[in-house]
């Protein structure tokens, strides 16, 4: 998918994918990672998600990666933070109160950028990408992510005959295939949430499954 698509969505304020509240799956399942205080958590395609604030309050340092300058600026402004920007390779890094966001293209990240990352929280990245780009995303993530590490992944699944993404439908089997090289992948929960999402019912969906996976990288 062309990056200009997402940049235009932010420019036009068409950000229905943004969640104002902290994601309930994050609150429920993050403790299963058992990360010590001071661990670094990467949040790809972070937007202006307040989930990063929640992670910071769990005594982690947070590294978001975001393509849109509008999203980066909105995050710090809406959370009353004054970031200190500086150039870092292909990115501009904005940092305030143990939260850093790298403004730039995820695919320009290298191993040095992720050298101290202990875990990844993926609510918005994989579901934002069409099939061919999902494979590229996973390959790049696993190449730069140091082992051992953990990933908390949230996906959606629905009938592809009823809607095309984004957000894109991703089945349990596809997640297993994408992460087949990893040591361990567990499905923590799968729930049909179509009744709680009227905007998706209006698009014609008869089901909307949310799934949460915990992935161990060795």
- Provide the helix percentage: 25-40%
Would you identify the CATH H-level superfamily? Vaccinia Virus protein VP39
Main pleated-sheet profile:
9 strands, mixed
* Count of strand segments: 9
Strand order of the largest sheet: 3-4-5-2-1-6-7-9-8
State the shape: globular
Indicate the radius of gyration in whole angstroms: 17 Å
Termini separation:
30 Å
Number of individual domains: 1
Reported CATH architecture: 3-Layer(aba) Sandwich
CATH topology: Rossmann fold
Element string (H = helix, E = strand):
HHEHEHEEEEHEHEHE
Unreliably modeled segments: none
Count of helix runs: 7
CATH class: Alpha Beta
Give the rounded overall mean pLDDT. 94
What class would the helix/strand composition place it in? alpha/beta
Q: Give the DSSP E fraction (strand runs of 2 or more residues).
A: 25-35%
